[in-house]
Design a protein that fits this description.
This protein is α/β, with parallel strands linked by helices. The chain folds into three domains: 80 residues, Orthogonal Bundle (Arc Repressor Mutant, subunit A), CATH 1.10.10.10; 241 residues, Aspartate Aminotransferase, domain 2; 96 residues, Aspartate Aminotransferase, domain 1 (Alpha-Beta Complex). Helices cover 42% and strands 14% of the residues. β7, α9 and β8 form a beta-alpha-beta unit.
Amino acid sequence: MRIDAEALAVHLAGPVPPSGRTAWLRAGLRRAVVDGALPPGTTLPGARALAARLGVARGTVVEAVQQLVDEGYLTARPRSGVVVSWQPLARGPAPAAPVPRVPSPGQPDGALYPRAAWARLVRGVLARVPGDDLGYPPPAGHPELRAALADHLRRTRGADVDPDDVVVVAGVAQVGALLVAAGLRRWAVERPGSPGQGAQLRRLGAHVVEAPVDDRGLVAAALDDGGALDAVVVTAAHQYPTGCVLAPERRQDLVRRARAGGFVVVEDDYDAELRYDRDPVGVVQALAPDVVVLAGSVSKTLAPALRLGWMVAPPRLRAAVVAAKHTADLGSPVVDQLALAGMLTSGAYLRHVRRVRSAYRARRDALLEALARRAPGVTVTGVSAGLHVYLAGLGAPAARRAHAALERLGVAAQVVPGGPVHLPGDGLVLGFASLRDAAAADAAARAVADALG
């Protein structure tokens, strides 16, 4: 089928522009092909005829058509002319609507993110960073951020760390991926624990078992029944979700078992900086840097969207972890790394942490007061820390009803199955970061009380 210049001009959008004519013609022809106005096999008019009809130079038509030939939409056939060659894909059923991301009970309030301060830091980085630093970054992280993080972790978490020990990662979730890539395939995670952690490790091909938690933290003795392990995850400073702190004798026992069993402890220090009643307990890593991988991020204190975190691995794993990081993404964004380094070294980060700590403590207190008034029979476990509370032993029906009611209010919550050794009966994790006033806290507490009947 051949189309003449007059008919083809109908399919080009609008009048010929005074400038950018090649781009206009190329876009119009491409659109006519993709929309089906020019079906496969259609022969286009000659360049001279089309140029005369449009009132443009012949070279404009030749260039636009050649670009579409190069892109695969058209084919130039000797003595036959230019033919439409693009074939539309067979249309299957419409894709399912994307499932909206459910907020985590541990998600911070984005309104507390220090936008102005971060913008100043980024502008400062862009004003001073040398051009050489805007190439691919060192896979372990920019030296300025590694030094700043090492100093910060020594001072605030008691870690045994030097700058060379730090690897900058895209949040704590990447730590597991890097360790699996480094050869750690057999894992134990806490039960109850972060619901996405075990699932992520399994998707990466790891074998995952669960280790029980009681009111003193991970029951390390249960690891004896799980077979040989490469890594054991623990949230020592503030167990997720029950909120307990790993007891001193449990810390020592876990380290002893790691050394004897040849596995590493992956210490997920996810929200230790948000302790409200006292300074947080120091990291297990300081007791045994030879067998503990320390992992943390700014996802709770700043924002998850930054995807900035760190890991401190034992020397025997460091080279493999850095190689895995290089393979995964060639390194974390340099400008954001340097902005965080500036925030840490200037003291702005700790000032921000103090500010959000005060805000979140007030929100937690308001929720606990409302729960005590509305649902006095509910047991809230754990220390005064973090961005969530754990309501223990509600039972499955009540926990599900409370979860549904809180979801309708826009309050993040998750049902936690009971057993085997932690508090009996299904419980509920309730995030309080979004409860910005007493009325919001009261509404959440009322939803829980109504679910209990």
